[in-house]
Design brief:
The complex is a heterotrimer of chains A (about 280), B (about 230) and C (about 160).
Chain A (H helix, E strand, L loop, with lengths): L1 H13 L1 H6 L8 H9 L10 E3 L5 H4 L2 H20 L8 H11 L4 H29 L7 H23 L4 H14 L6 H9 L6 H32 L49
Chain B lengths: L39 E3 H26 L24 H7 L4 H18 L4 H5 L8 H21 L3 H18 L8 H7 L3 H22 L14
Helix pairs in contact in B: 2-3, 2-8, 5-6, 6-7, 6-8
Chain C lengths: L1 H4 L7 H28 L10 E5 L9 E4 L4 E6 L2 E6 L10 E3 L4 E3 L6 E2 L5 E3 L8 E6 L5 E9 L11
Antiparallel strand pairs in C: 1-10, 2-3, 3-4, 4-9, 5-6, 6-7, 7-8, 9-10
The chains are: A mainly alpha (about 280), B mainly alpha (about 230), C alpha+beta (about 160).
Chain lengths: ~280, ~230, ~160
């Protein structure tokens, strides 16, 4: 029985329809595996090969990957939650209660969304500290660090805007306190406060604005910057790993130490691990 | 000669400061450039499968937590009745704790703004790129600056009675003094480690320490009226 | 060669674990799909009840055809008793009207025409206007359940007072 299932799958994979969608096919050859990444619209953000040292768990604790994982869980739970939620006061509170008590799996989705949000904020901070203490922010990765700080702010804003949506006492007063802090900005504070809330107090306008920010603007911003963040990792030479970086040129390097000069070679066709700088000049 | 794109080395993005190619010429041999290649592996399946396992493990843990613990939901929002205490989400509680001591302009705008700006410029400071141990160079001068800043900050915090921030500052200052007395030749591995830590490490560790302490106090030790309570009293 | 030793339906350890893993993922996916479907089907509807209270029977004199546009039904008092027709045209859902001068129910959208019994006279409507369940409650009010169809012209489809 199992064999015929395999045969069925093989027939399916050989069919014209299948091959028109998945052009390169499966296989364990290096070429096939490289094509699997390179020919895929989502995966070709990655390079087809990476340096072995980048896999090291102790280097990164996979914190960046885990942060992305929480983000994916949040999107996957957040979108279904939108089916039962009206961003109008006080309907929002009734909808949150409905989600918890009436809707099948509603309580589970809400819980998963909430705890993933807290874990994501925690992981984003942990990721930032781990990158810092590894020294992975240094050139040529400076700009990626800045992108990371932007993503930290986007994450905090996502959590903050989402906090208001249940429209309960916890939400209402947390946001009131927070938006009053925003009004403390000198000169522009009052204007910022008014624009943020769409009014002078946390009311129906504020709820709708926070809803649009939380469900559309900030997730799009997050995805935009995450794409840049991943692209920069690749273009900066892959994940930082101390043993793989060219030695810094310092006084002690002239004391007989080797300075690694990377080169393109058949084994290293993409010049993996070496930063490229557009202003490289001859004879410097 | 190969194209300049083939040979790239250097840490600084500025080509003038950080040379692109270095040639060592010794008396006996001709110029030799040692090229290093490193083992590489396929993204698919090595990287992607490991990432998938990591994310699936995370998902399992989060699903368990979601099944066991409920998200909080209090009563309907009531603008006329402020709960006591009215606490911000946990990641802002450090900020809210600081609001207890300083006016909103300082605690809510100045400090977070400076923190964000400081984070952004970290990779662009030469001192962070070179990453030498803080007290291994210009020791006397740096120690003097350290004393001025540490005592100044501690007095400032003492003046405003910000004990929550004062204690971590004093602890960090103490550890930094140990680092100042250490060198790469110190007997204990810990002191050797401390001796090699650069300035950015000290500032960031002080920041992390403060963040954790202030957030912990805001979460567990503050009750109605933002009065100090023991966690078990809350 | 190992082929001779292996039986034809042997599965290698790698294949076994691959099947186990994919199988578990398949079961998880199927379970998720089932729960997702249940989630998307609402358990509570915020719509008015299908049961309509049409008031006391003496509001409807003999031979009258009365439409209630808010609930989309006709209350008709004929010789056999009171009965209720759906006023929603079976073609594409427009609200029909009663034309007493022509003694027909007509739909303004595409020209369907129905008799008083709901039977289609002409037009693109595919089915006759359905009869709805009608009964008297304890207070003596006529109640119509718009979600329940009853056979046209049948004895129990009328309310006799």
């Amino acid at each position: 029985m199992a064999k015929t299932i395999d045969q069925h799958f093989d027939n399916l994979r050989g069919s014209r329809v299948w091959r028109s969608i998945f052009r390169s096919g499966t296989g364990s050859s290096t070429l096939k595996r490289a094509l699997a990444v390179q020919q895929n619209v989502f995966l070709h953000l990655f390079s087809t090969k990476v340096r072995t040292r980048m896999l090291s768990f102790s280097a990164t604790w996979y914190l960046g990957t885990l942060t992305l994982g929480t983000f994916l869980i949040l999107v996957a739970t957040g979108i279904p939650l939108m089916f039962y939620y009206h961003p109008s006061a006080p309907q929002a509170y009734a909808d949150t209660k409905d989600l918890q008590f009436v809707v099948s799996s509603g309580l589970f989705l809400r819980n998963l969304h909430r705890w993933s949000a807290h874990v994501m904020v925690f992981l984003v901070f942990a990721h930032m500290f781990k990158v810092f203490y590894r020294g992975a922010y240094r050139a040529p990765r400076e700009f990626n660090w800045v992108i990371g700080v932007i993503l930290l702010l986007v994450t905090l804003l996502l959590s903050y805007t989402g906090y208001l949506l249940p429209w309960d006492q916890l939400a209402y007063w947390a946001i009131t306190v927070g938006s009053n802090i925003a009004s403390a900005v000198p000169v522009m504070g009052g204007k910022i406060h008014f624009l943020l809330l769409g009014g002078n107090a946390v009311n129906a306008n504020a709820l709708l604005r926070f809803y649009v920010l939380h469900c559309m603007i900030l997730p799009l911003a997050a995805m935009f910057f995450v794409a840049i963040h991943f692209w920069r990792i690749r273009k900066d030479g892959g994940l930082y790993s101390h043993g793989s970086e060219p030695a810094t040129v310092r006084a002690n390097a002239f004391g007989g130490g080797e300075v690694k000069v990377p080169t393109l070679s058949p084994q290293n066709p993409q010049g993996q691990g070496w930063g490229t700088h557009g202003d490289a000049k001859e004879g410097q | 000669m190969a194209d300049s794109k083939d040979f790239t080395v250097g840490v600084d993005s500025n080509a003038k400061k950080s040379p692109r190619r270095i040639v060592f010429i010794t008396r006996r041999t001709s110029a030799q450039v040692k090229a290093e290649t490193e083992d590489q592996i396929q993204t698919f399946p090595e990287v992607l499968f490991r990432s998938a396992v990591a994310i699936m493990t995370l998902a399992v843990v989060l699903v368990w937590i979601a099944l066991l613990f409920n998200a909080p939901l209090e009563g309907l929002a009531d603008p006329s009745h402020t709960p006591n205490p009215a606490k911000a989400p946990w990641y802002f509680l450090g900020l809210q704790e600081m609001l207890h001591y300083f006016p909103p302009v300082v605690a809510g705008v100045l400090v977070p703004g400076l923190v964000v700006m400081a984070l952004i410029v970290i990779p662009y400071f030469k001192v962070n790129i070179e990453a030498d141990g803080l007290f291994l160079k210009d020791r006397a001068k740096r120690l003097a600056i350290f004393y001025v800043l540490a005592i100044g900050l501690s007095l400032f915090l003492l003046l405003f009675k910000v004990y929550a921030a004062l204690v971590p500052t004093l602890i960090m200052a103490g550890v930094m003094l140990v680092a100042a007395q250490s060198s790469p030749q110190s007997p204990s591995a810990f002191r050797r480690y401390l001796a090699g830590r650069p300035l950015s490490y000290w500032v960031m560790t002080w920041f992390l320490f403060e963040l954790v302490v202030l957030t912990a106090i805001g979460t567990f030790f503050r009750g109605p009226g933002w009065e100090f309570v023991w966690p078990w009293q809350g | 060669m190992a082929d001779e030793i292996k039986k034809s339906d042997d599965v290698s350890r790698r294949q076994f674990f691959a099947k186990l893993g994919l199988g578990s993922l398949g079961i998880a996916a199927a379970g998720t799909a089932a729960f997702a479907y249940q989630y998307l089907e609402p358990n509570v509807l915020f719509e008015p009840s299908p049961v309509v209270n049409a008031g006391k029977p003496d509001r409807y004199p003999l031979g009258s055809v009365t439409i209630d546009v808010n609930s989309g039904i006709y209350i008709i008092h004929s010789d056999e008793g009171y009965f209720s027709l759906s006023a929603v045209c079976t073609h594409l859902g427009c609200m029909t009207t009663w034309k007493p001068e022509l003694n027909i129910i007509a739909c303004p959208c595409h020209g369907s025409k129905f008799e008083q019994s709901g039977k289609k006279i002409e037009g693109p409507a595919p089915k006759p206007l359905p009869w709805k369940r009608i009964w008297l409650n304890d207070d003596g009010d006529l109640l119509v359940d718009r979600s329940t169809d009853v056979p046209p012209l049948a004895r129990d489809s009328f309310v006799r007072v």
